[in-house]
Amino acid sequence: MALRVEHELHNRRRGRNTGVGLLLIGFLAIVFGLTITKVLQLGDARKFETFDHVARPQIIPQDEVETGGTN
Amino acid sequence: MSDMSLHETVAETEYEAQMGDYFALLKPRVMSLVVFTALVGLIVAPVGVHPFIGFVAILCIAVGAGASGALNMWWDADIDARMRRTAKRPIPDGRVKPGEALGIGMALSGFSIVLLALATNFVAAGLLAFTIFFYAVVYSMWLKRATPQNIVIGGAAGSFPPMIGWAVATGGVGIESILMFALIFMWTPPHFWALALFVKTDYGDAGVPMLTETHGRRSTRNHVLAYCLPLVAVAIGLGFTSIGGWVYLTVAVFFNAWFLKGCYDIWHRDEAQAEADKYKVEIQTFKVSLYYLFAHFGALLIEAALRSGGL
């Protein structure tokens, strides 16, 4: 007997599976959207970049580099 | 196992719930009122919220309300099965298993609370958590089957959404949000008991004490007026806070006079008079109560729009 790839179970659960898929995509969109919104609300990206208090020369403004930094 | 035997095994299994059945667990009609009042609470707040964060917050509040609905259906499945109005709900109808409803209720509760905390603040998330707890545990589990004042207490759960919306924006609680809470809280009993006077319910058969049956219809009429009086005070008082104004006060005076007249008429007459005109006053007052809440929150929205327009 030939093995059917598409089983009746697949048809029966198609609605459920599609629904779960859409919910997961929606969740992904929410997390992504929240991340973008929250980061953009910071205004100055350095607030985010320096969250771990590690010095990163590439994010120090050019004028501070020329005058020897802020400290 | 061959394809045929697998097919037969699966075919013998019972009905499998679809997405629509799970969605019905969330009480979508209740959710729509929750979304509207929460949105008003969010918009009238003096602090602006980013539109996307506002959208996520309202979504969380709606999902939280739906989760408490699923938990309520899980706990009350035995009652629902005995009442005509609720017998076709997913659990008593056999479309969703009780364990599934419990799982969905718990999962969505956790999801909505955590996401609201991450997206906005802990005050809003804490209020949402308390609302779910209040509806699922305090109302459904402790009080619904114990006291005829269940509708008063249960109404508190439905009163929190504008307060949560306000907290999303401000991060706290204010006199305005407390009065919006009080408006829905005081509105629920006369709204529901006006309905209970003209609709024959089978709550009594299901073992749920209702005021019309435990204390009689005369007492219910007294209660309708007793709750309407403080409701008027709250509704008018809200107009003198920072979110009120002339538009709101005009709407509030009109609708409170209309609703108070209906509640007074309900109180003033007896069953013989009500039966003679087929509960005309009770039906009319119930209809007014539906417009009443929508008009008040709609007027608050108009006031917010006028303020943002500099008027």
Automatic annotation (TrEMBL), chain A:
The chain crosses the membrane at residues 20-40. It comes from the Bacteria. Keywords: Membrane, Transmembrane, Transmembrane helix. This is Cytochrome C oxidase assembly protein. It comes from Loktanella gaetbuli.
